[in-house]
């Protein structure tokens, strides 16, 4: 692990301190988890964007999903 120095607003630090006290953790652990969650969110958004661009370049064909129609179960039978 690396030690880094960050500059944060006083109000942000106060809010983090309140939460870490309730969670029985510390600033470093809380920050690691928050940064990991932000990275996960960013990566998911990137994948969604790639998916979107792929379908823009190659739209769904008329029969792309029709092979699955007989497999659908709506629970109303």
Structural key phrases:
single chain; about 80 residues; mainly alpha; about 60% helix
Shape type: elongated
**Could you tell me the radius of gyration in angstroms?**
23 Å
Query: What is the total tally of β strands?
Result: 0
Largest sheet: none
User: In which range does the helix fraction lie?
Assistant: 55-70%
Strand portion = under 5%
Helix-strand topology string:
HH
Summarize the structure.
This protein is mainly α. Helices cover 58% and strands 0% of the residues. The protein has helices at residues 10-23, 27-57.
Structure description:
This protein is an all-alpha fold and 77 residues long. The chain has a domain of 47 residues. It is built from two helices and no strands. The N and C termini lie far apart (57 Å).
